[in-house]
MBL fold metallo-hydrolase
Amino acid sequence: MLVAGFTFNTFSENTYLLIDEATRQCAIVDPGCYDRAEQQALREYIETEKLQVVLLLNTHAHIDHVLGNQFVIDTYNVPYLLHEADLPVLHAVPTYASNYGFPAYSPAEPTGKLTPGEVVRIGETELEVRFAPGHAPGHVVFYHAPTHTVIGGDVLFRGSIGRTDLPGGNHATLLHSIRTQLFTLPDETVVYPGHGPATTIGDERQSNPFLK
């Protein structure tokens, strides 16, 4: 599996393409593309690399991670999966989108749900869904064991953790999620977060000040 990343919108949110090398099928995770230029950048990369988009995934449904959901669905006509515990988070976005500077936000409804422990398939690539609430009530991460890769959303960052002061957030729950769902993975596992640079489980286990 290959990972291609883009940084979109005023929250500097990381959008990822998860690419199955054998089939060139891919999933789009947390599309934060809001304006036309951001949407075009994503579409041009997909066209240039001759990728076939087969799935839309959300780690969670805060506004910065879902701004491009409807664009992806309209453009590629693919299933959209989200953990059902984050549906209230998703449904709240239209009530505050304009206040955050996104008046043209177009809401999209999931066509299926993500279940912890299940495997999501993209071509020959298999991703394990791990439940990691605390930042958001239905937050999940996607683990690809063969390449020791985690698409982590807003759970764990380089030297930091996700905020827990938003509705549905809980600090103790987030720390528990990190320790049981991420720190049980090998040290060499690369974490691709929802904001900022990638890190590794080993580095965060050793030096993250929130997890001492």
In short: The first strand starts at residue 2 and ends at 8. The chain has one domain: 2-211. Residues 18 and 57 are 10 Å apart (CA to CA). Helices lie at 36-48, 63-66, 69-76, 87-96, 171-182, 201-207.
